[in-house]
Write a structure and sequence with these properties.
Layout (H helix, E strand, L loop, with lengths): L1 E6 L2 H15 L2 E2 L14 E6 L2 E7 L6 H14 L8 E7 L5 H15 L3 E2 L8 E7 L5 E11 L7 H12 L1 H17 L9 H16 L8 H7 L6 H6 L9
Parallel strand pairs: 1-4, 1-5, 5-8
Antiparallel strand pairs: 2-3, 3-4, 6-7, 7-8
Helix pairs in contact: 1-7, 2-3, 4-5, 5-6
Length: about 250
Amino acid sequence: MKSIILCEGSTDFVLLQYFMRKVYKWQDKKTGEAPMGKKIKPIRTLSKGIDKLSIGGCGGSSGILPGMDYIMEFNSLAAEGEEYDKVVIITDRDEETTESEYIKGIERILRDRQIISSENICNNKWIKCIYKNGHGKERILFILLLVIPFETTGAMETFLLNCISQKEEYDAKIIRKSKEFVNSVDKENRYLSKRRYITKAEFDVYFSIRTSADQFIERQNILKNIEWENYVKIQEDFKKLEKLSD
């Protein structure tokens, strides 16, 4: 089986690789890979038995739906056995309307590509679809939309801080005070002018406290140094990813 996860950018890209290796025992062959056109880069492929899983960054939320459309086009032209069997879209819940906008966008792509879904697209549920490849043969595709976090607006960073807060009472207090600081420090919104900037600043302030200065080099190193597999919430919310291997 061949699958791909489409995500926004570096935080998701690094976290998902770590999570799939640690929790679901996928292996990273650490081979260099070229981007899939201009739509999906960077990209990394993991393996588990005969199954392959690619994780691709789309350069931000605005690139995810074009990335999905690219995969749908790829499938329609691919030789038999080369197509993707499962496609996962993981994105931040930046606004209250994010989920509905993604559902509409996915449904529009399916309609334009003449792909028939067995039921309406919805969050956190595998949806079976049928399409015809370039040889006119019917193929089955499964699509999973994950708009994170499920329960509130925010980004992947919000989700990760919530995971920590639910497990560590001491850290929960630091996270709360970090958020209070970030939301009060830039009264004129000169630097934190967008909600996404505030979310990422809250994440960075917390980890600048938790991680010693010589380790706080970049976000990717932080993500790799936390044992996310020990946090119950992240396992619960990413549980559907277990089905990416037979």
